[in-house]
Amino acid sequence: MNPLVELGKLGQSVWYDNIRRAMLDNGELAAKIKDDGLRGMTSNPTIFEKAIAGSTDYDAAMRSLIGAGKSVVEIYEALAIEDIQRACDLFRTVYDSTAKLDGYVSFEVSPLLAHDTDGTIAEAQRLWTAVARPNVMIKIPATPAGLPAITAVIAAGINVNVTMIFAQENYEAVAEAYIKGLEARAAAGQAIDGIASVASVFVSRIDSSIDSQLELRARRTEDAQEKAHLTSLLGKAAIANAKLIYQSFKQIFGGERFAALKAKGATVQRPLWASTGTKNPQYSDVLYVDTLIGPDTVNTVPPATYTAFRDHGTAALTLATGLDEGKAALAAIAELGIDIKAVCQQLQDDGVKSFADSFESLTASITSKQATLTSGVNERMSISLGEFEPALRDALKRCESESWVRKVCRKDAALWKAEEAHQKIIKNSLGWVTVPDLLEDHADELAAFSARIRNDGFKHVMLLGMGGSSLCPEVFRRTFGKAAGFPELHVLDSTDPATVAALEAQIDLATTLFIVASKSGSTIEPLMFYKYFMHRMRELKGDKAGENFVAVTDPGTLMEASAKGDGFRRIFLNPSDIGGRYSALSFFGMVPASLQGFDFKTLLQRAERAMHACAPPVPASDNPAAKLGAALGILANVGRDKLTLTTDAAIASVGLWIEQLVAESTGKEGKGIVPIAGEPLGAPDAYGNDRVFVHLSVGAMDAATDAKLNALLAAGHPVIRRTLNDALDLGEEFYVWEMATALAGVLMGINP
Questions:
Q1: Buried b (16+ CB within 10 A) or exposed e, 7-40
Q2: What is the pLDDT of residue 377?
């Protein structure tokens, strides 16, 4: 039984919150429609930005458009409109078979027009005409300027997806705008049957905002009863808000006013649950699907949540249950002085700005890609394997035909091992695959936390960790250094007393924030560091010592309990399905990154682009992680298992991170790739036939290094080159190397 299909039987339509050309080309979208009962699709500027900038899907079309002299905006629209048209065509059978209830693909007006009523109306009409498909929906935000535009566009007979709804009052205003549009059209003697609209209510972001306020209060109170009350309200606001909106929907569209329109063929404006990916690792990954199932609704689901619900979701009517509990939770939150209306308004303002920023980032990305394509530099990696090229091609064919990348993303443990014990471990170790999405959702929160730390006068940040929890921050420390106006980052990962004393001598305890980083919460070294510096801080600040500490750990660990007991300033709970050496892009890497002061948001965005470039729709031959992983795997299998890593000086420390990732992941069952980081390149005759060379450069490679690598290649050694645009591309490197290592493990027959 497919839970996604079962939702349709309960009256809820599942739409897909993603679009990219590869899934149109390779049959993935068609398969979802056929096998999962998928009934629609939504897009936005952020989705297109990731798809266009983070993949090679659009390169051929872009070359043609560049050759035709098109502007950046014209290039974007041509690419996006073609995707929307093709998706509409695939969904046309759904549109027809459901009598125009479903089968829609949403396309957003420029978010730069969110506060311009006339501009939004004109843009909606232009896009409707350009796409020229009856099952396209034009997305308009539910801003004050957007509401009259919705009425006008509906009156013009255009399907509308109203986006950026958070508050119940705002939802009711949106429903009013829709009904007024239908009434105006009917009054003009025009048909109102066949016009469709959905009201996109954003869900999980409400919990993210309110939970952060509740958690802050819970950390600050010493009253056990108050703390219990605050924590009992976590994760309650968003679902309660959505359920109340559903009650408004039933009241509005079950009333006499709409009945008159319904008699003329009008259809209800269904609530569409948006932002339904789970952002808190302590909550179920299908929380915002399981709890919001009811008739006459839509849930547009992001890829990770879609996969998770298909795997273990529960299809049952839940939307009309728990209303009294939800109202009580919202009332309790309001009694605490948390203004839910203000929260919702701020979220709408932030959401509109975020989409506008994504649109501007999209145009900048197209400009950059335009320059790359016209320069002839088509990819950031070159792989030269000489006699092993046929083996690489065969491995990539296997990767494609056996759907390795798709299985990684679906957490299919059988890809590596058949034994149940192995599979249990593997299934709980693949959270890194989608963690860039999760952390990008938390980026503003991390930036705000960093600002508070600066405002509170902290001058130093010392990370207390070991191994995977400390290597990525060490890479950041060495690569980006100290930013003006931000604390200086120190990393303690040695138990040598002299090292501890030397680091302590560099800081002022009173103005130092300590990050205790431990996945298990019981690793002996971080615990000892924590106990030592907590003792020192208590000598200075007494019971207020916890104000100088934050923790990064998994939920339910000894470290979490200790941090609560000692009154830590903040506890960041990392997803428990991420291993230490795969944790660079999780809270373990991003908390210290945000405090250090470099542009960690851009680094995360580039990691997310890499995630899209390495996603299942991308053919293995175009997937950078698949190519790198296949190369390393087939070379290791023929004895080329010594990986010499060289880098430009600016990013030298990343070699240490890759070294640990590859060595610990592949060194199993009598096999393994042995990485050597930082070794100067020698003459070809200095090496045996067990080597493969990988060089990472920032920008163009220097002539001397290029000559040495060419000499090694001429002597029969495999050589792989990866080029970073700048140091922030480390976000991309982290993701590509993690995925590549996982895929190399498939070829080597080990559990990486």
A1: bbeeebbbbbbbbbbbbbeeebbeebbeebbbbb
A2: 39
381-432+616-748 and 434-606 share one fold: yes
pLDDT of the residue at 234: 94
pLDDT of residue 252: 98
Domain boundaries, the chain: 3-202+242-309+344-355, 381-432+616-748, 434-606
Cα angle 273, 277, 279; round to 5: 130
pLDDT value, residue 428: 82
- Backbone φ, ψ for residue 514 (5° rounding): -100, 130
Among candidate residues 32, 139, 519, 601, the one labeled active-site is 139
Q: What would the two tokens of residue 19 be?
A: 């679009």
Question: d(Cα 684, Cα 666) in Å, to the nearest integer?
Answer: 26
What is the chain's mean pLDDT, rounded?
A: 92
Stretches in the chain below the pLDDT threshold 50 = 375-378
Measured distance between the N- and C-terminal CA atoms of the chain, rounded to whole angstroms: 31
Could you confirm whether 642 is annotated as catalytic? Answer: no
| Residue partners of 223: CB distance under 8 A and separation at least 6 | none
pLDDT at 379: 59
As its CATH architecture, domain 3-202+242-309+344-355 has Alpha-Beta Barrel (3.20)
Under CATH, domain 434-606 is a member of which superfamily? Glucose-6-phosphate isomerase like protein; domain 1 (3.40.50.10490)
pLDDT, position 410: 86
What pLDDT is recorded for position 279?
A: 82
Q: What is the DSSP string of 413-480?
A: GGGT--SHHHHHHHHTT-GGGTHHHHHHHTHHHHHHHHHHHHHTT--EEEEE--THHHHHHHHHHHHH
Superfamily of domain 381-432+616-748: Glucose-6-phosphate isomerase like protein; domain 1 (3.40.50.10490)
**What is the pLDDT, as a whole number, of residue 374?**
59
